[in-house]
Amino acid sequence: MAAAADPDHGGVELVESEEPFRTNALLIILKALKLSHNRPHSFVFVDEILHSIFFLGNINTPPHSPKDIVNVPEVFEALLDCYPRPFKLFSSQVPKRSPFSCVLDMVVQVTREQEREQEERNIIRQLRNIINEVDPSGSRKLISSTICVSQRENSPLSTRYYGVSMSTHRRQIPIGASCLSNWQTFVANAVMTYYPHMTKKPYFDGTFTLKPEVRCVAFDLLREQEEEMAEEVVKPPCRSCGNLYGLATREVKEFTYGNCAEAESLSNLLRNERASTIISSRREYSERNLQRAKTQVENDLKSFLKMPQDIRVTFYTPETE
Ligand SMILES: [Zn+2]
Questions:
Q1: Which run of H or E residues covers position 27?
Q2: Do 287 and 164 have their domain in common?
Q3: Could you tell me the distance, in angstroms and rounded to a whole number, from the CA of residue 175 to the centre of ligand 1?
Q4: Residue 158 sits in the same domain as residue 195
Q5: 239 CA distance to ligand 1 middle (Å)
Q6: What is the distance between the alpha carbons of residues 263 and 216, in angstroms, rounded to a whole number?
Q7: Do residues 161 and 225 share a domain?
Q8: How far, in Å, from the CA of 255 to the mean position of ligand 1?
């Protein structure tokens, strides 16, 4: 459509360009259902994915209702029956993370069960295959471009922890929500130091430095298909991740703080391993300034959500059964 190619063509361009959101959203839901087949432990991820997608559809321009997204009546009815809470709460509660993070968790769960040796490679490969399936137009809507792998030390025996980059265009919302509800404290505090933009708070510094033996490496998930068999493409840490976690890098380009896959991966690492074995130094701050930073982050998040400042943000917790 000629109008779609013209970025100045007002409403027509908007409707046309937002269409991949619905396509990818439905394909991600169908993929999650497939991944959860015969795996009752995975139902919680499907619940969380549904809520996160319906929430993002609701704040999208133009908004997409659950019925617009799941536009196959039999599937819609079945989902409403099995997972009623996401349908009830998508407009009143905020997701703790983006849908693709839940997809990652599902893939990690399946792969850990199957294959210990080649785990990392298999997970990256499976995510690439999923991206090819659920993003047929290459629009990258709801898709993460990067995966990060962290380990306490670079040894085959130490457990690997994974994370993906933010997968929505309104990243300040999931980043703020992750700081307040999801990420491990040290990672949340590091990101809050800069949230929501590139400016460091004058009164609060929660950044830290990883020990040199910690392995924290990011890989590109969006390589062309023909490169599939080549070496994994390493993405060096950006300047923001250098500033937040003390990762050595020559990069000067800063990205939105908290956007990169390193945040989720390091959060999972720190949640499961002793912090003293991961972090060599971190900044000091008073409890009062920490609370001030949290309040500021919540207020900024409310502004992005266009919420009144006197209402507390409620985060969605998926049903475990
Ligand atoms: Zn980064």
A1: helix 10-35
A2: yes
A3: 13
A4: yes
A5: 6
A6: 10
A7: yes
A8: 6
